[in-house]
């Protein structure tokens, strides 16, 4: 069960105090967008095995949304930051790639399926 | 041991606004007569004080019969400042946990760190108590809990049962 | 015969005798006994029957790994199945029953499975037997499996006990209070960090106190006592006995179960967050696989020693020892010292040579090196063993009489807590064991190591190494250096010889009697069969054979099973690997998991300010989210349907009161609030004049209708949005999501003030008359026209009165501060008495709105319905450039004219249509099912119209007014219904303008 530090109130929140909100940094496409753009915005998700940027709300606390960079396999959390950023900061990207040196995995990019056992 | 009771009605005011705004800080401290509460803090008491609810929200406590006037005073002081102030005296109830076991009763129900290092006098924590959303802090010889009024009966029963179930002997 | 010796037993208090019963026989024990030690003391070796073959089963172990000693404990509502006798403290008056036997333990009819069917119940028996024919699944196979599945009986009645949780946040959690855990806690405690030490047993020190090595120049018991005292003196350290660490989860979340023994709760579930865990939970001895190793009287060597030293119980008078390592010699020496006979030590190793071996030789004990056991003699009880050469095929060399066999196949570190969060294992060839691989530790949220193994749980078996490992682990977990060392002295040990079956060339006939998993009746022959049938993965073989399943969870059977599998597959053991260790370590009761949340505390119930009045006036309740709303108010003797009809007619003809407090009330304020609401709602809210109300729809970004309600404009920059009862929290969160994440630079604040106000709908032709009696606010049609609101005093109340209607009648919704809610309600009841004012519930509300064709979120909508489907296109702005859901509603499927659209239905026979029923189309689909062309969304008996009415979504519905459709009905012919306008009552809307 995860703990994530809410960047707004500083509480190291228990997963039971949080609500998940899916993938972060989606760009909204509204009226005037193409079907492909809209489909991508509404339905296409990276669902990576590895580093992932995701949305969480500190529901049972300050009520604020924040974003977390987390490895979906190891559960390592690289950092959390406010939800209004359109993209991860360079610092956050650095943390993610630094912690995963050599893996060459860019967040949001699905990794190759594991070789058959 | 812990005695759990419903507190007498409090005057409570919700204020949303920019905590960095000097006018807002001044308006708040003028009403409470305490310092401005910083992150995860409560200044003063449930009689008169203010608690930090979120980066842009406070819960201000005043005596019940002063609530309407305090709302007016805040609105006046904050004219021209983007804010939202509302009398929420009836929205929540406050429960008193009187007795040395208050910390353990809360720790039976909340996933928050309630070790004295993390939860001391002046700490205001919003979290869960079992299935309830609640805020709590130390006050007097015990603790205070606020939760939505509709849940008052459940919260009372829950805290009382947890008190009756006895000390854990941890804190 | 097992019996109590006249001396010894460091854990029992012979001055405190206790009585208990087992299968109805009265027995005696002492305080400090476990149920198992007390049973053995009374000569009760046999404790149950095995799962599949119903073979007699005796105690094998002395701890949580015990596979056979599972009993039904207690009586009546406190009866609990599958309780391990080996870890159940004996209590006076205890009642225990053996399991899985019929009609009795000694005479069991299921044993036919063994004697006659044994060869027909091989690995995968279930999968092979219960497949065909399909028609047998439900009525032949399932009843059979259900009858034979499971071990104990399901308890009857409610559990009368209480349970609780406790949350603790620590820096270092030490699991296990043996000498490794104690030294780890000592090292971690010195750092000043928060340390919690948990031990599952009722006493500290673990197995060291059985074998009594020397620590710090004193007997181990003294060291344990001093160390516990030192830890208790540290203000930053907490210690608990009787508390088993049950599971380790992500980010240092740990659960542990504490057994309590007092007036309060029965068990306490500790929910712990820790930065680091020291796993010092010891090791478990492995059985050896030889024919007849399941006969009662065959026991783990360490367990036999435990019974002797801890409880003064001998398992037999003549104990044969069989081993592949030195540790079992400790049992031989202990048995000998107790004055009992060790007729032979069968040692698989050709040249055993350690210090303990020398001691045994010096005492004149007979050691048969390079030998194995070909077969155990006896059925309900060991009578002897046949010796053979280990290397051979099992030809008997000699029979030796004995009444107990102590076996040791070496030790398996308990790696469960290391592995729960993914810690990897390595195979230690020298010690023939899987142990934690320091290169593959489980990690926590910041990527640092979560679990540090210590002591025999790490794979260290010698006392000095265990202590050193504990100190190192404790210091490492606390992030510091090892500051002290502890000297220890125990016997030098020679190397172990891995032995997986005995003898090595055993033929199938012997392998069929070599048990790997005693509880699930899995034998060497079963695992070999699985391998032959292609189950190469250990995970598959486990499930196919049931090896290590149920309560064992790999404790006793894991390594032997996978070693046999690896041999069958001609692979090395590390290549085959282990199955996955999952929490909990031992089963948890559901009560513990639920904690305090049972009975009246099971789930929170939200009550409005007027709840008590409803309760006193006959309300039956409808759960709406966590709220309880009155469904209808029953008069004495009144049937609920009659109550609903009465309430509906009262509103149509007089006046009714509805507690509408649960409706969500969200204030939205700020310079950008209008712009924001125009994005939230499908229609325009920014143009709403101050003092007016407007009905609004909210769609998800996917275009589907998610909520509706009346929005009022409080002031220049402030609006109040009403939501559905269930929607308040959800819609507030939805608004905050968009404000915080997408339009974070817009100046808007929201506040969910739902609970600040109580709200009462006063509806019916007499509504204004009732309110007028309270005095105050002018509520005349001129002062308060339809879809407006006013604030002010209504009698003594601080009110906001909205002229809105969900019933089609003249209607006012009055909001007052919640603490005034009950008084307002009572004042209205009193004021309305002369017009027969009638409180009405949610069902009457539904009927009233359905008669008017008003939609209800959750009835007409189901997450796939757009406003246009419900003829609400008028409330969807064509002018606005954008709002949530607009783009989605432009998709081809949303604009498809073939969507199911809202209509009213009237049954030709006036009956009430079934809820959720489908409207039948023409023909059948490719699966031979009838095609459908619509479905019923709401259906009621309308007292006003004296007939069944319904709302439905129907293919091109509005084009088909007057047509007759057929609605499916379960167990009967379809019902015919005429398609009509959904507004069935007062189409012109004159009544609400009254």
From TrEMBL, chain A:
Residues 94-117 are annotated as: Disordered. It holds the Pfam family SoxD. Coiled coil: none annotated. GO terms for molecular function: sarcosine oxidase activity. This is Sarcosine oxidase subunit delta. InterPro entries: SoxD (IPR006279), SoxD_sf (IPR038561). Signal peptide: none annotated. Gene3D superfamilies: Folate-binding superfamily. GO terms for biological process: tetrahydrofolate metabolic process.
Automatic annotation (TrEMBL), chain B:
SUPFAM superfamilies: Folate-binding domain. It holds the Pfam family SoxG. InterPro entries: SoxG, TrmE/GcvT-like. This is Sarcosine oxidase subunit gamma. The lineage of its organism: Bacteria, Pseudomonadati, Pseudomonadota, Alphaproteobacteria, Rhodobacterales.
Automatic annotation (TrEMBL), chain C:
The keyword Transport does not apply. Belongs to the GcvT family. InterPro entries: 2Fe-2S-bd_N (IPR042204), FAD/NAD-bd_sf (IPR036188), FAD/NAD-binding_dom (IPR023753), GcvT/YgfZ/DmdA (IPR028896), GcvT/YgfZ_C (IPR029043), GcvT_C (IPR013977), GCVT_N (IPR006222), Sarcosine_oxidase_asu (IPR006277). It comes from Rubellimicrobium roseum. Residues 171-418 form the FAD/NAD(P)-binding domain. Keywords: Oxidoreductase. The lineage of its organism: Bacteria, Pseudomonadati, Pseudomonadota, Alphaproteobacteria, Rhodobacterales. Residues 512-595 form the SoxA A3 domain. The keyword Transmembrane does not apply. This is Sarcosine oxidase subunit alpha family protein. GO terms for molecular function: sarcosine oxidase activity. GO terms for biological process: tetrahydrofolate metabolic process. It holds the Pfam family Pyr_redox_2. Gene3D superfamilies: 2Fe-2S iron-sulphur cluster binding domain, sarcosine oxidase, alpha subunit, N-terminal domain, FAD/NAD(P)-binding domain, Probable tRNA modification gtpase trme, domain 1. Residues 902-986 form the Aminomethyltransferase C-terminal domain.
């Amino acid at each position: 069960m995860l703990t994530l530090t809410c960047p707004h109130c500083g509480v190291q929140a228990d997963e039971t105090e949080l609500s998940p909100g899916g993938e972060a940094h989606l760009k909204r496409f509204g009226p005037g967008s193409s079907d492909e753009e809209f489909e991508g915005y509404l339905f296409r998700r990276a669902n990576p095995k590895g580093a992932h940027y995701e949305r969480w709300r500190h529901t049972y606390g300050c009520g604020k949304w924040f974003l977390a960079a987390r490895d979906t396999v190891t559960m390592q959390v690289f950092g959390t930051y406010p939800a209004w950023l359109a993209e991860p900061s360079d610092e956050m990207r650095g943390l993610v790639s630094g912690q995963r040196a050599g893996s060459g995995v860019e967040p949001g990019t699905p990794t190759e399926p594991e070789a058959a056992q | 041991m812990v005695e759990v009771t419903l507190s007498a009605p409090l005057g409570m005011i919700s204020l949303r606004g920019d905590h960095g705004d000097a006018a807002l800080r001044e308006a708040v401290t003028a009403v409470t007569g305490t310092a401005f509460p910083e992150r995860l803090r409560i200044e003063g008491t449930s009689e008169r004080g203010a608690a930090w609810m979120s980066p842009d929200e406070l819960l201000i406590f005043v005596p019940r019969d002063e609530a309407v006037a305090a709302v007016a005073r805040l609105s006046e002081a904050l004219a021209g400042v983007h804010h939202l102030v509302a009398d929420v005296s009836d929205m929540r109830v406050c429960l008193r946990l009187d007795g040395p076991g208050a910390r353990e009763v809360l720790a039976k129900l909340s996933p928050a760190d309630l070790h004295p290092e993390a939860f001391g006098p002046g700490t205001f924590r919003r979290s869960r108590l079992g299935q309830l959303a609640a805020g709590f802090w130390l006050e007097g010889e015990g603790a205070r809990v606020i939760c939505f009024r509709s849940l008052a009966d459940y919260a009372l029963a829950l805290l009382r049962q947890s008190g009756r179930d006895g000390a854990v002997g941890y804190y | 015969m097992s019996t109590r010796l006249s001396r010894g037993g460091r854990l029992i208090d012979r001055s405190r005798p206790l009585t208990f019963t087992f299968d109805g026989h009265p027995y005696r024990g002492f305080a400090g006994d476990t149920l198992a030690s007390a049973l053995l003391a009374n000569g009760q070796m046999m404790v149950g029957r095995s799962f599949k073959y119903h073979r007699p089963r005796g105690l094998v172990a002395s701890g949580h790994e015990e596979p056979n000693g599972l009993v039904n404990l207690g009586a009546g509502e406190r009866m609990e199945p599958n309780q391990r006798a080996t870890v159940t403290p004996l209590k006076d008056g205890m009642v225990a029953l053996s399991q899985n036997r019929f009609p009795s333990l000694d005479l069991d009819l299921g044993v036919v499975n063994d004697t006659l069917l044994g060869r027909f119940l091989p690995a995968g028996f279930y999968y092979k037997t219960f497949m065909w024919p399909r028609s047998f699944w439900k009525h032949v196979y399932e009843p059979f499996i259900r009858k034979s599945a499971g071990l104990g009986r399901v308890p009857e009645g409610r559990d009368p006990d209480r349970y609780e949780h406790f949350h603790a946040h620590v820096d270092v959690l030490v699991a296990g209070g043996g000498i490794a855990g104690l030294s780890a806690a000592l090292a971690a405690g010195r750092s000043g960090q928060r340390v919690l030490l948990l031990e599952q047993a009722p006493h500290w020190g673990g197995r060291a106190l059985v074998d009594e090595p020397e620590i710090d120049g004193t007997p181990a018991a003294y060291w344990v006592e001093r160390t516990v005292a030192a830890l208790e003196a540290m203000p930053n350290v907490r210690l608990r006995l009787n508390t088993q660490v049950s599971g380790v989860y992500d980010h240092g979340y740990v659960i542990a179960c504490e057994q309590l023994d007092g007036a309060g709760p029965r068990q306490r579930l500790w929910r712990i967050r820790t930065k680091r865990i020291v796993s010092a939970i010891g090791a478990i001895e492995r059985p050896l696989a030889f024919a007849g190793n399941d006969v009662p009287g065959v026991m783990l060597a360490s367990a036999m020693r435990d019974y002797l030293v801890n409880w003064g119980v001998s398992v037999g008078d003549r104990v044969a020892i069989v081993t592949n390592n030195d540790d079992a010699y400790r049992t031989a020496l202990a048995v000998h010292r107790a004055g009992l006979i060790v007729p032979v030590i069968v040692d698989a190793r050709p040249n055993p040579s350690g210090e303990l071996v020398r001691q045994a030789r010096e005492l004149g004990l007979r050691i048969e090196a390079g030998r194995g056991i070909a077969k155990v003699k006896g059925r309900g009880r060991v009578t002897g063993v046949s010796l053979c050469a280990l290397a051979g095929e099992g030809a008997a060399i000699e029979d030796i009489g004995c009444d107990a066999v102590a076996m040791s196949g070496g030790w398996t570190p308990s790696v469960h807590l290391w592995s729960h969060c993914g810690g990897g294992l390595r195979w230690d060839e020298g010690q023939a064991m899987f142990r934690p691989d320091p290169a593959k530790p489980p990690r926590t949220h910041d990527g640092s190591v979560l679990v540090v193994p210590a002591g025999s749980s790490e794979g260290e078996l010698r006392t000095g190494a265990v202590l050193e490992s504990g100190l190192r682990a404790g210091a490492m977990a606390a992030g510091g250096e090892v500051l002290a060392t502890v000297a220890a002295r125990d016997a030098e040990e020679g190397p172990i010889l891995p032995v997986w079956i005995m003898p090595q060339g055993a033929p199938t006939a012997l392998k069929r009697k070599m048990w790997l998993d005693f509880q699930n009746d899995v034998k060497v022959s079963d695992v070999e069969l699985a391998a032959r049938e292609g189950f190469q993965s250990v995970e598959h073989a486990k499930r196919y054979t049931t090896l290590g399943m149920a309560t064992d969870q790999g404790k006793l059977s894991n390594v032997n099973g996978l070693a046999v599998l690896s041999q069958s597959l001609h692979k090395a053991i590390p290549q085959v690997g282990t199955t996955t260790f999952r929490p909990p370590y031992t089963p948890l009761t559901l009560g513990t998991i639920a904690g305090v949340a049972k009975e009246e505390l099971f789930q929170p119930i939200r009550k409005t300010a007027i709840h008590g009045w409803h309760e006193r006036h006959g309300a039956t309740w409808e759960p709406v989210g966590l709220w309880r709303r009155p469904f209808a108010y029953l008069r004495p003797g009144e049937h609920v349907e009659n109550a609903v009809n009465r309430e509906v007619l009262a509103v149509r003809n007089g006046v009714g009161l509805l507690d509408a407090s649960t409706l969500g009330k969200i204030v939205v304020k700020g310079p950008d609030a209008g712009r924001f609401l125009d994005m939230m709602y499908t229609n325009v809210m920014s143009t709403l004049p101050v003092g007016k109300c407007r009905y609004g729809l909210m769609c998800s970004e996917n275009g589907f209708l998610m909520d509706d309600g009346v929005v009022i404009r409080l002031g220049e920059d402030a609006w109040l949005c009403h939501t559905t009862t269930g929607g308040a929290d959800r819609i507030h969160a939805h608004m905050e999501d968009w404000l915080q994440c997408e339009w974070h630079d817009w100046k808007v604040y929201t506040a969910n003030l739902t609970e600040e106000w109580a709200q009462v709908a006063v509806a019916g032709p007499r509504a204004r008359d009732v309110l007028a009696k309270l005095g105050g606010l002018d509520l005349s049609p001129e002062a308060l026209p339809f879809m407006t609101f006013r604030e002010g005093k209504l009698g003594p109340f601080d009110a906001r009165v909205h002229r809105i209607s969900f019933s089609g009648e003249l209607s006012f919704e009055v909001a007052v501060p919640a603490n005034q809610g009950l008084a307002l309600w009572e004042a209205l009841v009193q004021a309305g008495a002369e017009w027969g004012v009638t409180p009405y519930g949610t069902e009457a509300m539904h009927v009233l709105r359905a008669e008017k064709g008003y939609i209800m979120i959750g009835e007409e909508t189901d997450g796939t319905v757009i406003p246009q489907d419900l003829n609400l296109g008028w409330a969807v702005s064509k002018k606005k450039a954008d709002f949530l859901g607009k783009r989605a509603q432009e998709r081809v499927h949303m604009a498809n004219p073939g969507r199911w659209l809202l209509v009213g239905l009237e049954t030709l026979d006036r009956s009430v249509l079934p809820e959720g029923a489908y409207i039948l189309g023409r023909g059948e689909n490719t699966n031979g099912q009838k095609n459908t062309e619509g479905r019923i969304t709401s259906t009621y008996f309308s007292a006003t119209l004296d007939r069944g009415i319904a709302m439905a979504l129907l293919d091109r519905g509005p084009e088909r007014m007057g047509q007759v459709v057929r609605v499916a009905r379960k167990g009967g012919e379809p019902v015919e219904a005429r398609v009509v306008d959904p507004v069935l009552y007062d189409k012109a809307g004159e009544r609400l303008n009254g």
